[in-house]
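Notes continue from the previous slide.

Worked example: a multi-chain complex. Inputs as given:
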Amino acid sequence: MPRLPSPTVRLRLTLLYGGLFLLSGAALLAITYFFFRRSTGINLIVPNGGHSDFSRQTLEGIQSSYAGLERAHERSLHQLLVDSGIALAIMSAGSIVLGWLVAGRVLRPLRTMTATTRQISERNLHERLALPGPKDELKDLADTVDDLLSRLEAAFGAQQRFVANAAHELRTPMTLWRALLEETLTDPDATIDSFRATSRRLLALGEEQERLLESLLTLASSERGLGRREPFDLAVLAEAILRDESPEAAALGLRIDTELDPAPAAGDAALAARLVRNLLDNAVSHNVPGGAVHIRTGTGAEGTFLSVANDGPAIPPGQVGRLFEPFQRLGTERTGPNDDHHGLGLSIVGAIATAHGASVEAEARPEGGLAIKVRFVAPPQVPHF
Amino acid sequence: MRVLVVEDHAELAESIARVLRRDGIAADIAEDGEEGLRRAAVVDYDVIVLDRDLPRLHGDEVCRALVARGGDTKVLMLTASGTIAERVEGLSLGADDYLPKPFAFAELLARIRALARRAQPSLPPILEHDDLQLDPGKRVATRAGERLALSPKELAVLEHLLGAGGRVVSAEELLERVWDEEADPFTTTVKSTINRLRAKLGDPPVIVTVPQGGYRI
């Protein structure tokens, strides 16, 4: 069954124009008619008095010609009404046609924009409407759509990079896994010991994979937002994590400076602990022998903060932003034994911070290494829990 | 046959090299792109197995440099990002073949051998001399229909001598083509391998020693 076209904006605009014209035309006619009628009537003045010179016959003649005039006037008024009605109908039809054309003209840029936008979203997101012309409502709309496309393109790009990187990150250990298995299985001289060694190595690889999966899940869940809000103190979290990390840092010959003042914040304490741990891991594993890690927490004018700075290889300032993208590592130099976070550590920090409404500032230190400051919004003063 | 494995994951590189050696292919390892190019400049490799994501110098750059240098070396690219677009890109840079990770060793070996054959197109798929036959793909040598129990190294030496088609092959050439950096580089190693090979091949003798020259079949 063919579907009736829904009333378009063009049709509605046309009806609006036509209706308005009809209304104002009718009003104009009514007013004209009223004034015309009032100003063009026939006045018969018959002098009153006893001594009338009019003969009865004359009076009758006058009366009859008056009646005739009256009828003629009525007729011409009627004629006026009919003519005006016809004129109004013709003009109304004309205005509807004109209205249809004008509405089409007004809506044409909009239609072009729709078609272009549809093409862009089907084909390639890097094209823009780039509507020329003066700054008006339509240009404003086109610019807004362009902004939206830019953000969409960036988001799609980030997602594609993420998927490609995740695939790469998962395939690399799979390759090693398969290679080690095949090497041992196809070895005619394989011994129990070589099978044992391979099994142990595969187990270790499996554990590494589990950590990668856990990191991916943390990233996904922290990007989804916070499930709960509870108060916590960044200083307390940092202290607990430092107790775990200090031996490892000491084993690598690193010095840890702490300056932990109370820093109350609210959110998911487990995720916040993950944030602190990832920052510390990053500071420890991308350090230099004999280097230092500085950790500070406290409360400033804009809320509470956690800052972690570390010595390390010099980072080009332009590269700092990239560190927060998933799977990005700069160079291969690292002091730590292995990279537990698979290049996800700092992107998890970024995602957790965003979920908490916290801001992350990272800068490359001129003497080498990285300084990262996370500012949390201080929790509202809650009187009771 | 001598192969260079350019792969930054040391463990994977070693595993590949071990499997290649087990199959009688001399394999060296380079852990980054720059080292790979350096090694390729010194030794004339038959095939270079090149990982695409390399530190220091990207695999694409290495491939481009190798192609620009010319020569018979074939490049087999490995990469973990196996989209079709990437594959096309790798091949258009001049790589001769392409294998996405993760791969099966059987396939890697078959492709390496196929590439090496393309480097010497005149060689038949099965090498023959009188009643001696060698199938490089199956790694089997027979004499008068009887299968010879050769070690991978002995088989490789025999393959190279047969492939030389009567030309005199020096001990140094055998060292470069059949042994890799894992082996101790002494010509006495060649001599003892040749002697073992002669013993296993039986009578009448096939390998001829050319004084001051080398060996010939």
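Summary box: The beta strands of chain A are 230-233, 255-260, 264-267, 292-300, 303-310, 359-364, 370-376. Chain A has three domains: 9-39+65-122, 137-222, 229-376.
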